[in-house]
Amino acid sequence: MRNPLARASTGTSLKLHGTLAAVAYLPLLLTRPGWVSADTKTYLYLDPGRLMSRAWSMWDPTIGLGTVTHQNIGYLWPMGPFYWVTERLGIPDWASQRLWWGTIIFAAGAGVAYLLRVLGWRGPGVVAAVYVYALTPYILTLVSRLSAILLPFSALPWLVALTIQTVRHKGWRHPALFALVVTTCGSVNATALLLAGLGPVLWLVHSVWGAREVPPRTAVLAALRIGVLTLPTSAWWIAGLSVQSTNGIDILRYTETAEVVSAASVSHEVLRGLGYWFFYGTDRLGPWIEPSVGYTQWLPLLLLTYLIPIAGIGGAVIARWRHRAYFVLLVALGTALAVGAYPWDEGPPFARLVQAFQGTDAGLAMRSLPRAVPLVVLGMAVLLGSGVASLARRWPQTARPMAIGVAVVAVLALPPLWLQQFVPDNLRRPAEVPEYWQEAADHVDAAGNDTRVLVVPGTDFASYRWGNTVDPILPGMIDRPSVQRELIPYGSPASANLLNAFDLRLQERTADPDAVAAIARLLRAGDVLVQSDLQYERFNTPRPRNFWDFVLSAPGLGEPAAFGPDDPNVTIEDVQLDDEVLLVTDPSLPDPPAVAVFPVEDPVPLVTAHSMQNPLVVAGDGAGLVEAAGAGLIDGTELIRYSASLDDDDVAAALDNEGALLLTDSNRKRGERWTTVRHTRGYTETANGGALEEDAGDNRLPVFPDAGTETMTVVDRSGDIDAEATSYGNPITFSPEERPILAVDGDPQTAWRAAAFSSSVGERIELTLRRPATTDQIRLLQPIKGPATRFITEVRLRFDDGTSFDVELTEQSRVQPGQ
Question: Residue 756 contacts by C-beta under 8 Å, 6 or more apart in sequence?
């Protein structure tokens, strides 16, 4: 039977691809020449050859104190070779980046054209579907920062088409092409690939039970042919992922939580190609993705982007063809997965089921379910195209105008493409890195690889006054190992714990200058690089003048080598830090050079051996070592062993070898968050205490996974009341000054506070008397310090005989002496 959607072509395939190429490449090549967006890996632009030369090894000495990483191996293909070739051809970095982005868009559209050609389509429906898919707003969620994750989006229509060809034709050609597409698009992010892979799987099901094209045996054999070739060709990055997951730190637990990812995954946003949490985020300098403002606040753009899915639904209604059900199911499945766990609190049964799955290790790896949006976009694009084709068949004279009209609407619905907003102000840098950074890199590289470079202070992401690179810039410019604290902990839990403890003191202005050289030796650093050109107001990192004065006072560091100007590092106009730090800062403090390198006196080489004699056994963790260094108890050259990692016999043997025991109050039992480099630690808990409900954002480094609370510093309260709460402070940072016990410390100026920046519904505090008490009243006073807009509404009193009753709290509870 003739396909009802096929008709005489209104233009050749060559014209379609040529027009698509012009739309995909030309606007991008005209976008902000000379500026590079902080996309995927800064090191791809700094020196792609250096990055690729390291990618073969799973050990990366440039992250943390060394870590097992999967990510670098993924750049062996295709991103690494792409940027290496363009560099060899002399193409500027900014132009290479635009060509890369344009290729992602073009490949997505060309894949839809190929898919529809396989299905027998011709004419205006193809044009409409191609443009709607290629120019979906979904690309904005990732293109300027994580474009590598868009590769499965580009590959999806190709994978579906090649699956169709494999089912319909015998042989190995199409399975081989399928395997090559997978190994090209899936090496960096497995989650996005697996979600895109549902499209081919769904076609196999549809071909058997929906379209009834083939018997089950044929579909199974097709799947086997695909699998036999796909697994070996992707084994290189699958093996890397396996090695990282079994040997590296459990990174997934220290990045965004499943609850955060699901926060914006509402169905109507998903249907227009959005719904990914990062698209809606902001910080003190503005939105993370600048075009998000238009897509959430500009009414004409809102109407335009909702018009497309509405037209797709209309196409599903009016078109009649045998494979319509497949694309309807594609939209339904993609929407269900992308919405997933939304809403997190009191969601429907499906959401609760997804949340339960995401609580497992495998589910945590799949927490970014909004990356299923390409399934939705592809389904909507093809259904819209089917509607256009049906109308054109009924009224042939409208074919060309409709095809052009849909293409124009798709272009207009992506204004950042033609308004030159693909390179946002908050994620860009000049194509050429400041010369002083290259001079500093050459200086530290010349010292050899016997020691590493310690870069201070740490920062959430690398935002310099001259531009934003997201990744710290130094590792991509040197061969020498380096270490710098970043937002996410890398390496072993013990090494990350030490690095974080040291940098946290720097961030919170409580560090002792006497600790710097000793900790540098312990970290095996031969040089300390001070970066004073950070955009410090973005993440509230140390002020350059104050920090420079601090480092200059640190004994054990030699004379610095200065690089770059010593001009004042002035905050942007919209963010002025006129606060208590500024008030206590000596106005006569000098401005530091942009970058300075301090040699460490008597450094310790990376590879060293210690005698078992005279060990220092530390009862504590990295925080205790930092305190000991500040007190002059260690100089960084000792053989140090943590008592919590030893059994009693090992401790005794160490002390028998003329060792010493250092008792600290570190290794505390307390929460840890990873949303900032400041205020990451919670209050010290009792041995058996903690939050009344699980906090997905509290992920503690397992420094001593086999040790119990008997090796930790814990609180032993002497009062008459125990206080525990569902949470305290806010979900971003820990604020021990708002912990539950402060509700019953007798001081009305302190209080338990919870749920800042989030819903307070369901939050509760439980107060338990340690010994029986007889009284005829209990007085409750709500927080009186500072403005308050939310209050506790009800209190429940429980008694020893099991009875209880509830009392509503009135405004009397909000003023002294309370209710």
Answer: 729, 730
pLDDT computed for residue 6 by the predictor: 52
Give the per-residue SS3 of 732-784. CCCCHHHCHHHHHCCCCCCCCCCCCCCCCCCCCEEEEECCCCCCCCCCCCCCC
Tell me what pLDDT residue 12 has: 54
443 membership: H or E segment, kind and range: helix 435-445
Supply the pLDDT for residue 345.
Answer: 78
> What pLDDT does residue 3 have?
54
CA atoms 557, 559, 563, 565: torsion sign: positive
Q: How many residues does the chain have?
A: 819
Residue type, 141: T
What is the 3 state secondary structure string of 55-123?
A: HCCCEECCCCCCEECCHHHHHHCCHHHHHHHHHHCCCCHHHHHHHHHHHHHHHHHHHHHHHHHHCCCCC
Give the Cβ contact number of residue 209 at 10 Å.
Answer: 11
Q: What is the pLDDT of residues 237-266, one digit of tens each?
A: 998 888 888 887 888 889 888 989 998 999
What contacts 145, CB < 8 A, 6 or more positions away? 37, 38, 39, 40, 289, 427, 470
Nearest C-alpha neighbor of 338 from the set 288, 384, 374, 314: 374
Which SS3 state, helix, strand or coil, does residue 227 take? helix
Identity of the residue numbered 638:
E
Check: CB of residue 731 under 8 Å from CB of residue 697. Answer: yes
Alpha-carbon 246 to chain mean position = 20
> How far is 78 from 529, CA to CA, in rounded Å?
33
- The answer for 739, left when phi > 0, alpha when psi is -120 to 50, beta otherwise, is beta
Nearest alpha carbon to residue 687 among 670, 704, 705, 703? 670
Report the C-alpha dihedral over residues 231, 233, 234, 236, rounded to 10 degrees: 120
With a cut of 60, say whether residue 2 has pLDDT above it: no
**Spatial CA neighbour of 437 closest among 470, 461, 466, 479:** 466
Peptide linkage before 817 cis (omega within 30 of 0) = yes
User: Max Cα separation, the chain?
Assistant: 96
pLDDT tens track for 9-62: 444 578 899 999 999 999 999 999 999 999 988 999 999 999 999 888 889 988
Tell me the H-state helices in 147-251.
Answer: 151-168, 173-185, 190-196, 198-205, 216-233, 235-247
Query: What digits encode the pLDDT tens for the residues 712-731?
Result: 999 988 778 999 999 999 98
